[in-house]
Design brief:
The chain is α/β, with parallel strands linked by helices. 28% of the residues lie in helices and 30% in strands. It is built from eleven helices and 15 strands. The strands form three sheets. It has a six-stranded mixed beta sheet. Helix 1 packs across helix 11 and helix 6 packs antiparallel against helix 7. The two termini are 44 Å apart.
Amino acid sequence: MKVLELQKIFESFAPLSVQESYDNAGLHIGNPQDEISKILFTIDVTEAVIDEAIAVGADCVVSHHPLIFKGLQRITGATEIERCVKKAIQHSIVLYCAHTNLDSVYAGVNYKICEKLGIKNPVILAPKDNALVKIVTFVPHAHTDTVRNAMAHAGAGVIGNYDTCSFSMQGQGSFRAQEGAQPFVGNVHELHVEQETRLEMIAPLYVQSNVISALIQAHPYQEVAYDVYTLKNTHPYIGSGMIGELETSYSVTEFLSMVKSIFSVPCIRYSEASVEKITRVAVCGGAGSFLIPHAKKAKADIFITGDVKYHDFFLPENKMIIADIGHYESEQFTKEIFYEIVRKNFPKFATHFSTVNTNPIKYL
């Protein structure tokens, strides 16, 4: 496949527009028109991973963490990042990453953690606000269904498990075509009044341009009137962390032992709390301390994440357990998400899971 096709399938699943402002997800090395034949999935890009890609014949590496976070002023090989870039270019290896955009989407990193733990019907712990828009247009009655369906096909009108959601009301629109115009109805230089439908649909911000393009293409008028309103509503399927219920309650020791086994964690740093049974579980892959207040407010029995600082363990005030299982350990199953995305869209495409443990933290 072409790199462009890889970008398309990943960014339709986890749009780059939902990544955090500090992030640098997306294509790092390679041309969108380059052809690739085998992908290596990894959490981090290191020299050992690049060497592994060369050894297994992979001409593309898909990682969770970006190799390049900030601009490089030189590529001399003085640092591991520079050496990785240099070697990838020398061996024509494409580098692509899906980072906080994959953290933010519903079926991303945190859903995979919930899946591994058996958490049922998880929801986003901290949904993003200002991530939705309402798109309003005015269309002749007879063309309302055509425009509505086009907007829906482009991603508008999805609310929970329902699609093609819209609101419409009837009214009158007026216009006068000027010299050179080719009006769909009415005559040049004559004021025309048309029975129109006001059509409203909600859409995620990241599909706004696609929806507007579809609207204009499907609309019969030469000049299309539409309004876009930014909504303060939170987006229930875009945000940070997840929370849900276990089918069975566990004692604290039982649950922590299960977590330790599932994530192959040598040890778990955790806080004590007045919690006897674990039923309600909040999670955040990677560094999730910023979500401790959200997990506490959502009445989680335990919050599982990584990179927790000493003082942050005090924040739940003995009402919730914090379990730090490690940054790498919490995100290790992200490679499975990469595989599932590629396999769903290109069932016969060659893929390889990296066998390199890129976790820089060791335990004794």
